[in-house]
């Protein structure tokens, strides 16, 4: 296929953009794995909100003394 492409210089410009699109797809694939990783990070983030939950309990404790 590379030989035919070389034979078609007019097609060269078209394959070039196509290659760019393919390149864009490759980064997108790389981003895809990264996205799951980010999702993994939100899980720790969920744990972080869990930390505020104790803080909320602390607020309740504060409310108890107020009571």
Question: Secondary-structure blueprint of this entry?
Answer:
Blueprint: H1 2-7, H2 15-40, H3 42-50, H4 52-66
Overall average pLDDT: 51
Topology, number of strands = 0
Helicity range:
over 70%
* Share of β-strand residues: under 5%
Radius of gyration: 27 Å
Count of DSSP helices? Answer: 4
Cα end-to-end separation: 81 Å
Q: What is the succession of H and E elements?
A: HHHH
Question: Overview of this structure, please?
Answer:
The structure is a single chain. The chain is an all-alpha fold and 67 residues long. The chain is built from four helices and no strands. It has helices spanning 2-7, 15-40, 42-50, 52-66. It is rod-shaped and about 85 Å long. The mean pLDDT is 51.
Summarize the structure.
The protein contains 4 helices and no strands.
Distinctive features:
single chain; 67 residues; mainly alpha; rod-shaped
